[in-house]
Amino acid sequence: MTTPTTDLPSPVAPAERMLILDAIRGFALFGILMMNIEFFQRPIQALMLGFNSEQSGLDYAVAWLSFTFIQGKFYTLFSLLFGLGFIVFIDRARQKGAAATALFRRRLWGLLAIGVVHLLFIWSGDILHLYALVGFLLLLFVNASVKRLFIWSVVLLLTPILLILLATQLLEMAMQVPEEAAKLEAGFAADKEKLLADIARGDLLYATGGYWQLVQWRLYEFQAMYLSPALVLFVPMILGIFLLGAALGRSGILQEPQQHARFFWRLMWLGYAIGLPLTLTWGIYGTDVEMVTASMRNAVLMTCQNFSNLALCLAYLATLVQLYLHKSRLIGWLAPAGRMALSNYLLHSIVFTLLFYGYGFGLYGDLGRAAATFWALLLYGSQLWFSHWWLQRYRYGPMEWLWRSLTYRKRPLFAR
Question: Domain DUF418: where (predicted)?
Fold first, then answer.
């Protein structure tokens, strides 16, 4: 099939890319790996149990640092960048005379295909498919102003939090009635028993199962995790973060950070002033919070976590902008990894599933959190170097090239 050039502009050339956005994406990649390394040795459903308090010593310390300062913050940062990238993509496509929304839909379908393959055939912790599906809702805001994007972002971020607090309050009121309390407690106990059985089954399969057994199990995990009522609350939060990123993109602040240095300075300090106390509250008191049993204490602590996720995400972003404005070498090291974020993200899963799972080297459960994190740091460091090496020879990462091919229905130049 052939399509007129006006409908399908060329992919973004390396010279057109924004260094600061690539650097932030490379930094977000680091945080995602530091969080995901836990769930290459735990079933993804174990997320519902919260912090793993069975660890001790250095393993506990490393896990706690990740739980407090990384978990939730970097997924939020990645989501923010996705929304910002949506605006950049749409605006650039329009400047080139393209049917921008049709092009973005194809981009999302391509991401969805990559995400589903990753989810079923490599690792069940995939986030790409969810980003793609929620990304279709962004098209409702394709012409929205900065103000409208920001207002909808606030509404979507606050609504699930308020609903959780309200639902928890109603549950606690119901628990005051003995008959209702007995029913609710029995329901919570049954849910937890099923969850623990699923986690035990997942541990066994990941440690000893064959490849096709795990493909079937990942399909089951997908149904259990992503087709649950909790998705009703999770989707608005993702979309809210997308829209906040879109508002930043439409404002042009990150496209011209030199002209907004004071804004980023204030954002950095405000983010840390709000985020650090909240995340320390979460880190100190939230290690026993689980998502199976509802309580107002848990709901309040999770609210602290949600606000700290956003505040520290913005503080981290603003810190990187400050480093960029001061011409830090770190930005130059992070940017190539960010340009190849999709390839690097998928490589994390390939390397660690082969290392840990029964059909690979079978080390599942043998490495403590500290040792596993060391290997994750080693992989990330090698990716920083390799991304430099690769992009000196090729225009795109391999998966970025594939994604662009699916989006533009033509194969962009690969080698330099």
Answer: 248-410
Structure tokens at 380: 């990330």
Nearest to 241 by CA among 302, 160, 164: 160
Cα–Cα nearest to 307, from 332, 335, 271, 336: 271
Q: What DSSP assignment string belongs to 146-176?
A: HHHHHHHHHHHHHHHHHHHHHHHHHHHHHTT
> Among candidates 24, 29, 132, 141, which has minimal Cα distance to 407?
132
DSSP state of 252: T
Q: Are 147 and 141 in contact (CB under 8 A)?
A: no
CA distance 333 to 391: 12
What tokens does 122 get?
């490599």
Q: d(Cα 330, Cα 332) in Å, to the nearest integer? A: 5
> CB atoms < 10 A from the CB of 130, how many?
18
DSSP per residue, 78-143: HHHHHHHHHHHHHHHHHHTT--HHHHHHHHHHHHHHHHHHHHHHT-TT--HHHHHHHHHHHGGGTT
Q: Which long-range contacts (CB under 8 A, 24 or more apart) does 327-331 make?
A: 330/23, 331/19, 331/20, 331/23
What is the model's pTM?
Answer: 0.93
Residue range 254-308, pLDDT digits in tens: 988 999 999 999 999 999 999 999 999 999 999 999 888 888 999 999 999 999 9
Is the separation of the CB atoms in 239 and 134 below 8 Å? yes
In DSSP terms, 415 is beta-bridged to 394
